[in-house]
Recover the amino acids of this structure.
């Protein structure tokens, strides 16, 4: 029996398989199931206990990393009384339970791709009576970053914020690089500066645990160059844009949930 069977070898499935399977104290046997065998082999070859399977085999936990419109079909093929973790965006626990065989335990999770490097953020929720699978899910996702137990009614917002969040940061890195190039830097130098700056700021915010406003003010001298930049961000409504972007992503998650139930 496999310790973990990951169904779906896409970006998120690969990130979780590599992060969990490559962590000290992680699952020793990780099986990968994907409709593209080459993709599955590429993931398994990077894991000490990685294997490729061409159908569902017995496993302690099934990690379902497929698109929302595929989750119903995958759940219906699980063995009865299985333990499954779904990362399908927008698909609710009541839907997951209705589609799964009798006696299956289900946890819903929303990780992000930083799990591949051990710096992920994952929200989890469950309505299982004894909470044993929720505990197991916390332990699994703790191998690849921070884990938060979140009420399901808040899941769409959390998904829009931290699940999609790396893309927002990558967009910022893109924009910083493009600005550097426009103002005379080489593409490689501009990208290196942008990456290192975002990484350092994130580490500092994480280490200090202070109000981000205080951290911002500490490097924003009145009348200085940072203040000039911040004034432009405020003028063009960065806060409003961020709110509307996360609101739009939340609404999309809700729409995905409605579509998955049809």
């Amino acid at each position: 029996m496999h310790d973990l069977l990951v169904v779906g070898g896409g970006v998120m499935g690969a990130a979780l398989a590599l992060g969990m399977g490559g962590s000290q104290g992680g699952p020793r046997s990780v099986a990968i199931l994907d409709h593209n065998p080459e993709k599955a082999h590429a993931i398994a070859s990077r894991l000490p206990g990685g294997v490729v399977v061409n159908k569902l085999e017995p496993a302690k936990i099934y990690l379902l990393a497929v698109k929302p419109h595929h989750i119903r079909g995958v759940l219906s093929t699980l063995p009865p009384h299985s333990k499954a973790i779904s990362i399908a965006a927008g698909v609710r626990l009541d839907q997951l339970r209705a589609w799964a065989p009798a006696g299956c335990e289900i946890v819903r999770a929303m990780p992000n791709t930083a799990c591949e490097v051990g710096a992920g953020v994952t929200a989890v929720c469950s309505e299982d009576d004894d909470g044993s699978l929720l505990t197991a899910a916390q332990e699994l996702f703790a191998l690849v970053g921070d884990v938060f137990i979140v009420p399901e009614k808040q899941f769409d917002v959390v998904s829009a914020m931290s699940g999609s969040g790396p893309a927002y940061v990558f967009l910022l890195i893109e924009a910083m690089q493009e600005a550097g190039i426009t103002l005379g830097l080489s593409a490689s130098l501009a990208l290196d500066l942008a990456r290192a700056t975002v990484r350092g700021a994130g580490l500092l915010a994480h280490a200090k645990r202070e109000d981000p406003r205080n951290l911002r003010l500490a490097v924003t001298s009145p009348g200085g160059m940072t203040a000039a930049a911040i004034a432009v961000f405020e003028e063009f409504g960065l806060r409003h844009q961020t709110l509307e972007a996360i609101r739009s992503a939340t609404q999309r998650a809700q729409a995905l949930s409605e579509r998955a139930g049809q």
Summary: DSSP finds eleven helices and eight strands in the chain. The two ends are 34 Å apart (CA to CA).
